[in-house]
Amino acid sequence: MENELNALDAKLALLIQVNGKLRADNHQLRQELAQALSSNRQSSDKMHSAKARLEKLLISLPGQ
Hints:
By secondary structure, the protein is an all-alpha fold. It is built from one helix and no strands.
């Protein structure tokens, strides 16, 4: 009985340790995702701005 309790205690300690690591990893991944989404928004905004400038330039070109 004592051995079984010790084994269960060891498994529980390992579970707590793994859970803590996974929580930390999850937090890190959430931060990386937020950064990637922000960078993606900035790139998209720049692309739309460049598109608008190009369209404006195309309109101002003399016709053939």
